[in-house]
Each structure stands twice: as C-alpha cells, then as structure tokens.
C-alpha cells in the first residue's frame, strides 16, 4: 500500500504550514509542509508528476515535501523513490544547499539526490521502506482528477468509490 497526502490542511489562508502524511505498507509518518513558497496545489502537482514519471519507467523520482524560496538556497526535503529490479525503495532525503550549485531547479532534483545508497559514509544503515510499483499505480488511479487533497477527503473518496462499486454490482 502506498499513499501520500495532506493529513491536515491549513485552517486559514494566512497559515504557513500544512501537515502531510505518507503511508508505505505498514509504515506511516506525518511531516510538516511549509506553504510560504509553494501552495497545496503546487506540491500536489509535483507529487503527481513525479509519481507518473516513476510508474512510466523512470529509475528514480523525488517528491518534494518542503520547498522554500530557491533563491535563498534553502534545505529541501523530499521522498525519493528508487527502482531496483521489480522493487521500489523509498528514502527521505535532505538536500543541503552545499550539494547544489546556484539556484535550485526542480528538474535537477534526482541528479542532486544521487543514486540509491544503503550505507552512510560512516557505515550506518540508511532508513528505507519498500513498496510495489503496482501500489503506486493504484494510488495514482485513485487520485486522478481529484481535487480534495486532504487525508479525510481521500478517505471520503475511497468510501464513495466502494459504495459506487456496490451499487454497480447490485444493478447487474
């Protein structure tokens, strides 16, 4: 199972943060999403685009979950997906401004993140989670053209989808 969504949307337009949630099989984590540079829709579009690229054959794809003004050379956080044979490994990455030249460009993210590593320079194991490409495809199918990006909205849509399936089956 795989999902990424907004667990809690801002209560007002002046809010500077939202709360995100990622589910990878039996693991889940909440994370802060700053809304000072990107808004909800920009994160969502970047996530959807990155996931579509990945399921369409990219060996690596990154979902940014903390984007700040690139001209200020901020730290940027992302979830990076690596395809290894038939498996998908996911790491959370912190992009240090020292690792990228000049202004950060989204199209350079996978180059900046680099290839998958399983051990740090000091010999520690890097945390990673495993899922299936089919789970990512399923998630993309469920969110297609869906405008409520919140966790509760996602659950509501899933419930409606199940109810619609039951109705269709009863009509047959």
Written description of the protein model:
With 172 residues, this protein is α+β, with helices and mostly antiparallel strands. The chain has a single domain (2-171), classed as Secreted effector protein pipB2 fold. The chain contains four helices and seven strands; from the N terminus they run βββαβββαβαα. It has a four-stranded antiparallel beta sheet with strand order 4-5-6-7. It has a three-stranded antiparallel beta sheet with strand order 1-2-3. Helix 1 packs across helix 3. The chain is globular, with a radius of gyration of 17 Å.
Short description:
The chain is an alpha+beta fold and 172 residues long. The chain has four helices and seven strands. It has a single domain, classed as Secreted effector protein pipB2 fold.
Sum up the structure in keywords.
172 residues, alpha+beta, Secreted effector protein pipB2 fold, three-stranded antiparallel sheet, 31% helix
Q: Please write the CATH class name.
A: Alpha Beta
Secondary-structure-derived class: alpha+beta
Strand order of the largest sheet: 4-5-6-7
Number of domains: 1
- What about the largest sheet? 4 strands, antiparallel
Task: Work out the strand percent.
Answer: 25-35%
Number of E-state strands: 7
Helix count, per DSSP? 4
Would you identify the regions where 5 or more consecutive residues have pLDDT less than 50?
A: none
What is the correct CATH architecture? Answer: 2-Layer Sandwich
Give the overall average pLDDT: 84
Helix content: 25-40%
**Rough shape?**
globular
Q: How do the SSEs run, as a string of H and E?
A: EEEHEEEHEHH
Distance between the termini: 30 Å
What radius of gyration results from the CA coordinates? 17 Å
